[in-house]
Design brief:
This protein is an alpha+beta fold. The protein has 15 helices and 16 strands. It is elongated, with a radius of gyration of 28 Å.
Amino acid sequence: MSDKKEKFTAIKGMNDILPADAPLWELFENTVETVLKSYGYQKIVTPIVEETGLFARAIGAVTDIVEKEMYSFEDSMNGDQLTLRPEGTAGVVRAVVEHNMAYDGPKRLWYKGPMFRHERPQRGRYRQFFQFGAEAIGFAGPDIDAELIMLCRRLWDDLGLSNIRLELNSIGNAEERQRHRADLIAYFEANETVLDAEAKRRLHANPLRILDTKNPAMQDLVNAAPKLLAYLGGESLAHFEGLKKLLDANNVQYTVNPRLVRGLDYYNRTVFEWVTDELGSQGTVCAGGRYDPLIETFGGKPTPGIGFAMGMERLIELIKGQGEPAAPNQCDVYMVHQGEEAQLKAFILAERIRDAGLDVVLHCATPQGAGSFKSQMKKADGSGAAFAVIIGDDEVKNDVVAVKALREADAAQQQASVPFDEAVDYIVDQVIGGHDHDHDHDHVHYHP
Ligand code: ATP
Ligand code: MG
């Protein structure tokens, strides 16, 4: 047998979320889900792996994602071409069509989960990252566009995030984009010396996407390019005006950014992004848009759709920047015990306290052994528990437990001897009555 030791690390750009951060993620996810529910959105879960063709079709062949970011592989069993999902809309739309979900009326859906893109890892840009997304399927008017945007605004409010601004645009329909496209290509051709290699490559395939460039040397050029908004026809304009009117009436601030595009064939009309200046160059925390033609291209009957996706890592980083999170409590009660009989009683009592709805950590042995009372009490202190329950020989003999308050200013004085059978009631009273317990077992508190 080989005694060679191997050390593994996570894949570059794919992160662990450690227990220290997990409470913040949990708080974030609970907040988002509560807001989604308050607008009537329902959860949908789709597989992480789909056919490669699905994404090429839904996202568009001439896009960063499909051209270079997808984790694709061949199923060694049957040769199928498969891809780790780079985004959530394609899978949701596939599921909606496959299960005939849109036939009995419109649907408000949400999803969350990991997405995979082979990008250069940097701050706010990872190879596995998490998104929350919402898709509203079967709604045609600007009212649902406004609703999705206002749902986001409520979420930023609930998360205490104030420095996120809304950018808005309309990319019209395919025919309007076609007319704009011709002028755009002519304009870029006339300025070909300024174009970088990527822009040249996209000039005829997807010129709209050039407007999206992050190359500083091209900013003046794209700022002066023909604006798609000027090419919109009556219906597209009315939709855009309708959305702006609803946003104005609801006091939603926005700026119209003519350079904001989703340069994909199946996207149309409303596009929007929520952006912050506090995350460096990866400042877009949420992006959305309408995709009315998409469902038909997947074999469904013509059904409009609109959705958004938000990057969870970027939002979590933004929340962290707002203040130091308080150390999360691991439990309400830490059980300290010494001796075989005491351990049995500790197990029984811990289960009873959990039955009563409190969180309990029972001290367990490490390779160093069970630990002295003193070392167990240190663990109890570190756990953030409000109370330690202590059972030793004396307590066993007298059929009592000692309950020690750990968080009071005069904690040293606060120790009570309680009959074993009354211990649950006593502890529940103490914990619920305590000032620093918030009844719903949400142990996360963040200072503003
Ligand atoms: P970018 O221009 O930053 O590459 P994108 O247009 O590719 O963004 P979308 O596909 O619209 O991004 O995804 C929606 C959101 O998901 C983004 O606004 C961002 O918050 C997040 N996101 C996208 N790619 C990544 C990534 N590689 N790592 C972390 N978050 C990401
Ligand atoms: Mg990208």
